[in-house]
Every structure is written in structure tokens, then in C-alpha cells.
């Protein structure tokens, strides 16, 4: 039997694939909507409101909710008939390495928050954005402070550059290749960004003065996993200190670096928390040379002390 390009079988497979992707996107959209401030403030969202927010028909939303309820991803209040996130989302969340990291870091970060009297954030890298997954204390009057789940461009924020500092040059190039997301006012071209990331890796922290918000300054330090890769960043955000911007940021940056090292060592003690299958030697901080890893080649080999 002859097989023709563009046959009905191939077309049907493509349609099934697109349907599966569309269904998956609908389910993810529902979860994101139920995690939104609007949902929390109103104790859930109904089918009609979810359909409005997602631009979907009510029938499709209802079918998706029924399946998600079977797996505990959503649950409906018996009186209001509004949907909320279900118990399964909590279970999935606490099984993530990020939750384990925060569990062990929480008392250390609370101490840091009290010491610096600044808002402390924990961020992870998602694509080319730094996403906030935890926030501690001190909500200043200045607008622009972000909350859990919100994100900023990685290259224009201290938290983001601390995360990017763990990338090799080829990885950085691949991340921004063809994105057209250039911002000469703050980072210039890729070479300039690479130099700033190298400086962050050498000092152990990154700083930002008015890049995300003119009234705010920030500093952040990378947290390393057992394989010396950057798994998160911890940072502070607060109002600009008049007359002593950079000295204040450098003091905070050093404190963040010390705290990030404490968190990393505490997490490395947990064998089931390792992000890598192997457990290479923990790199030693080496002053201006950073952790002694050759990040330009991507090989991750330790440099000699000579």
C-alpha cells in the first residue's frame, strides 16, 4: 500500500498531539488562576470566572476541572461551588528540591532579615527570568517590591545575575540567542553581561541600584548545590540609602554570600538533597578568583592554586 505524505493518518496524529497540548495548557492555566491573588481573596473561582480569565468555553473548563478533581489537584467548596487548589498541589510542592532548600534555609534567612532589616527573597531561574519562590519580612512603603510567584528579567536584577553567574559562556549565549531581548541601558551586549557575571562569581554576590525600580537597591548571592551549580539565589531589596549606595550594597552582599555558604553547607549534609548523581568535592571559596571553577569552558574543572 502506498503511503502519501500528508496522509490522513499523519494529519490525525498531529491533531491529537495539538489537542493533548491544548488540554495540558488549559489545566496549567487553571492551576495558575487558582493560585492568583484574586482567587485567594475570593476563596476560589467559579467555572464562569475561570472561563473568562482563560478565554475558554465553560464546557471545556468544566471537563478539565472534573479530571483535575479526580487527582486532587483542585477541589470545589460544597456551598460556594468555587474551585480552589487541592491537596495534591501541596504534596507535589513539598516534594520539590526548592521546598527542601527553603525548609533548611528558613531559620537562617529569618535571622538575616532581622539583622539587615531588609526584605529577603529566594529566587530560582526559569528561562531568562528570576522567579521569587519565598519572601521574608520588611515591606517598605516604596512601590515595586514583588511577591511570591512574580518574576523579573534575570539580567537586569541582582537576584537574576546571581543565578546566571553559574552558567558557562556557551550556556549564557544559548539562553539569549535569538531572543532579541537586549537592554543596553542596564547590561549592554552579551559581553558586558558576561563580565558582570564573572565579577559576581568572583565576589560571591551581585548588586543592583535602581535597575528594577529607581527607589530600590538590591544585592544577591548564589546558593550552590552539591555539584557546584547554582540552584537558587538569596537577596535583599530595600530603599536606596542616601549618600552611601555602593558601600551599603557591598556590606549587604558580603553578608548574603556568608549566608548562602551556610545554607549550601547545611543542604549538602542531606544526601538525598543532592542535585547531581555524583558528589564531587565541594569547591573552596578562593577570594577574587571565586570558587576556582573554570566557568569559561563549561568543563567545571577546578583550577590549580598556582
SSE layout:
Layout: H1 8-34, H2 37-41, H3 47-54, H4 58-70, E1 74-76, E2 83-85, H5 87-94, H6 97-116, E3 119-126, E4 129-136, E5 151-153, H7 158-164, H8 169-176, H9 190-203, E6 206-209, E7 216-224, E8 230-239, H10 245-268
Antiparallel strand pairs: 1-2, 3-4, 3-8, 4-5, 6-7, 7-8
Helix pairs in contact: 1-4, 6-10
Give a structural overview.
The chain is of the alpha+beta class and 306 residues long. It has two domains: 81 residues, Winged helix-like DNA-binding domain superfamily/Winged helix DNA-binding domain (Arc Repressor Mutant, subunit A), CATH 1.10.10.10; 194 residues, GAF domain (Beta-Lactamase), CATH 3.30.450.40. Helices cover 44% and strands 16% of the residues. The strands form two sheets. It has a six-stranded antiparallel beta sheet with strand order 5-4-3-8-7-6, with helices on both faces. A two-stranded antiparallel sheet has the order 1-2. The longest helix is centred in the first third of the chain and has 27 residues. The N terminus and C terminus are likely disordered.
Amino acid at each position: 500500500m502506498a503511503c502519501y505524505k500528508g496522509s490522513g493518518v499523519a494529519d490525525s496524529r498531529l491533531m491529537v498531539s495539538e489537542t493533548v497540548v491544548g488540554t495540558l495548557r488549559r489545566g496549567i492555566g487553571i492551576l495558575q488562576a487558582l493560585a492568583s491573588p484574586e482567587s485567594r481573596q475570593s476563596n476560589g473561582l467559579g467555572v464562569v470566572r475561570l472561563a473568562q480569565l482563560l478565554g475558554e468555553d465553560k464546557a471545556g473548563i468544566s471537563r478539565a476541572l472534573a479530571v483535575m478533581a479526580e487527582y486532587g489537584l483542585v477541589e470545589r467548596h460544597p456551598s460556594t461551588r468555587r474551585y480552589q487548589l487541592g491537596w495534591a498541589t501541596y504534596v507535589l510542592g513539598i516534594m520539590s528540591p526548592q521546598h527542601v532548600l527553603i525548609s533548611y534555609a528558613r531559620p537562617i534567612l529569618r535571622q538575616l532579615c532581622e539583622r539587615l532589616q531588609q526584605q529577603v527573597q529566594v529566587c530560582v531561574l526559569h528561562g531568562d527570568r528570576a522567579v521569587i519562590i519565598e519572601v521574608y519580612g520588611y515591606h517598605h512603603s516604596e512601590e515595586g517590591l514583588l511577591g511570591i510567584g512574580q518574576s523579573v528579567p534575570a539580567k537586569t536584577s541582582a537576584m537574576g545575575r546571581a543565578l546566571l553567574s553559574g552558567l558557562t559562556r556557551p550556556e549564557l549565549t544559548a539562553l539569549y540567542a535569538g531572543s532579541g531581548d537586549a537592554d543596553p541601558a542596564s547590561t549592554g551586549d552579551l559581553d558586558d553581561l558576561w563580565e558582570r557575571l564573572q565579577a559576581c562569581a568572583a565576589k560571591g554576590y551581585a548588586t543592583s541600584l535602581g535597575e528594577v525600580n529607581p527607589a530600590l537597591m538590591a544585592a544577591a548571592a548564589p546558593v550552590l548545590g552539591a555539584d557546584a551549580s547554582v540552584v537558587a539565589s538569596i537577596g535583599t531589596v530595600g530603599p536606596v540609602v542616601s549618600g552611601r549606595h555602593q558601600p551599603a550594597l557591598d556590606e549587604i552582599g558580603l553578608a548574603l554570600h556568608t549566608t548562602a555558604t551556610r545554607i549550601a553547607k547545611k543542604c549538602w549534609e542531606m544526601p538525598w538533597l543532592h542535585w547531581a548523581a555524583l558528589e564531587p568535592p565541594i569547591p573552596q571559596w578562593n577570594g577574587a578568583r571565586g570558587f576556582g571553577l573554570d566557568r569559561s569552558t563549561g568543563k567545571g574543572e577546578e583550577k590549580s592554586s598556582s
